[in-house]
Amino acid sequence: MVAVSNAMVALHKTQFGRGPRTARSNLAGPDTLVCVLENALLPAERALVELGEQQRVREARIAFQAATADHFITAVEQIIHRKVRGFASGIDPDNDLIFETFQLAPVESDGAGHT
After folding, report:
1. Which of 4, 8, 80, 97 qualifies as a FRET site for 74, CA 20 to 30 Å off?
2. How confident is the model over 59-111, as pLDDT tens digits?
3. Rounded Cα distance, 92 and 98, in Å
4. Which residue from 54, 36, 37 is spatially nearest to 45, judged by alpha carbons?
5. 22 with 37: CB under 8 angstroms?
6. pTM score of the predicted model
7. Strand partners, 34
8. Please, what sign has the CA dihedral across residues 99, 87, 78, 1?
């Protein structure tokens, strides 16, 4: 899952001008992929958090992620060779964490129990 983490960092860097310092991607069951990005907030976003404006940071980040969702979905599909059924991005501004979550299409079996 290192390739997925690297792709998420690169996409954040492209979209926001700065990537997170750390990223970790893991499967959460057979069909859910979660990437946790740490230390990803921009300096202006950190300033907003210090002013108690966490909701503004959430709203802006979620809007940006919705506008660029296709880039994130395409990257994951190309890396793991599975179709993404759904994508959601979440943020915890107080702890400088971003969660990129992908619901994957189930792997089809060949009828003999093989995938």
Report:
1. 97
2. 998 898 889 999 999 999 999 999 999 999 999 999 999 999 999 999 876 55
3. 6
4. 54
5. yes
6. 0.88
7. 26, 101
8. positive
